[in-house]
Design a protein that fits this description.
There is one protein chain. 32% of the residues lie in helices and 22% in strands. The chain is of the alpha/beta class. The strands form three sheets. Strands 2-1-3-10-4 form a five-stranded mixed β-sheet, with helices on both faces. Strands 7-6-8-5-9 form a five-stranded mixed β-sheet, sandwiched between helices. Strands 11-12-13 form a three-stranded antiparallel β-sheet.
Length: 331
């Protein structure tokens, strides 16, 4: 008799289905059991409001977590950057697989780079974090752009450029990679220009804490470096008391590996890495004020060390005036 299929809860978007499909294959390999996708519609998928208005935090996550709690699915896959920073006791982040490219990319008309956009170019993004940093970069480099708030899936967003409504849109590289459309990016934004959202490019595989056997099997897909990095980034976000719609960017990376990764060389794995760098930024959406700081220290070996790493940088950022830039404080 074949073992019962594991049920994987996923959002219905093309991107969510693609990344859940990849996880399903990996889980099937480590467990030897078939995995079936269970599509769940979340509030974030059906609401037409801007993410900043509906609170951002958790709007894509709650329905999946409720399905887990009710036993309708065995585990769920989230984009880590959508997860609220507080983890419910009854649910376990069983695995954070190796992170995809964390950068943001530009899809612009006429294959333009960001720095070559014409004066008055309209640039679409749903993230206050991107607006703050793009506007700050534009101010510093004499560019004249207008950031326009948009929502929708990848097709919708790129459609604004194809139709001529916008000159460019900014998207996460990881999402385009996962749906096989990265060749549509006209420019990769260096993390020195735009720091990504905390956890960007990483997936979270969640199951109930009570399901110890499944948690142990899923743990085989965990990447310790990715987990340490995103834990530090999310700790910074939490310490700034910011929801995931707040204008906060953060990236923990391993400096010797970061340059080859940005060049697209994934074969830099042989190096022994002892230091982790954490960078954080918070700013007003018009880009007029940014607080941007970084710190370097030993790679955190435990959850508590990674949390402390993020908290310490957040404390420095708050001392430099970050709190006043957060807009609405998350409750």
């Amino acid at each position: 008799m074949t073992e019962k299929a594991l049920r994987l809860g996923t959002r219905r978007s093309k991107l969510a289905m693609a990344q859940s499909g990849q996880v399903a294959d990996a889980v099937s390999q480590v467990t030897g059991r078939p995995v079936e996708l269970v599509e769940i519609t979340t509030y974030g998928d059906t609401s037409r409001e801007h993410l900043a208005q509906i609170g951002g935090t958790g709007v894509f996550v709650a329905a999946l977590r409720e399905a887990l709690a009710r036993g309708e699915v065995d585990f769920a896959v989230h984009s880590l950057k959508d997860l609220p920073t507080a983890q419910p006791d009854e649910l376990l982040l069983a695995a954070i697989p190796r992170r995809e490219d964390p950068r943001d990319v530009v899809v612009a008309r006429d294959a333009l780079k960001f720095a070559d956009l014409p004066r008055g170019a309209r640039v679409g993004t749903g993230a206050p974090r991107r607006m703050a940093q793009l506007n700050a970069y534009a101010r510093a480099h004499g560019l004249d752009i207008e950031t326009v708030p948009i929502r929708g899936n990848v097709d919708t967003r790129i459609g604004y450029v194809r139709s001529g409504e916008l000159d460019a849109v900014v998207l996460a590289a990881a999402g385009l990679n996962r749906i096989g459309r990265i060749d549509e990016a006209t420019d990769f934004l260096s993390v020195d220009t735009v720091l990504p959202a905390p956890g960007q490019g990483a997936l979270a595989i969640e199951c109930t804490a009570a399901n110890a056997d499944l948690a142990a099997a899923l743990a085989e897909l965990d990447d310790p470096f990715t987990r340490a990095a995103v834990t530090a980034e999310r700790s910074l976000l939490a310490a700034l008391e910011a929801g995931c719609s707040a204008p906060v960017g953060a990236l923990a990376d391993l400096p010797p590996l970061s340059a080859p990764l940005e060049r697209g060389d994934s074969h830099a794995d042989g190096q022994i890495v002892k230091e982790m760098r954490l960078r954080g930024v918070v700013g007003t959406t018009d880009g007029s004020t940014l607080v941007q700081l970084s710190t370097t220290g030993p790679v955190p070996l435990t959850h508590d060390e990674a949390m402390a790493f993020g908290r310490e940088l957040a404390t420095e950022m708050l001392a430099q005036g970050a709190a006043g830039l957060m807009g609405e404080r998350a409750h």
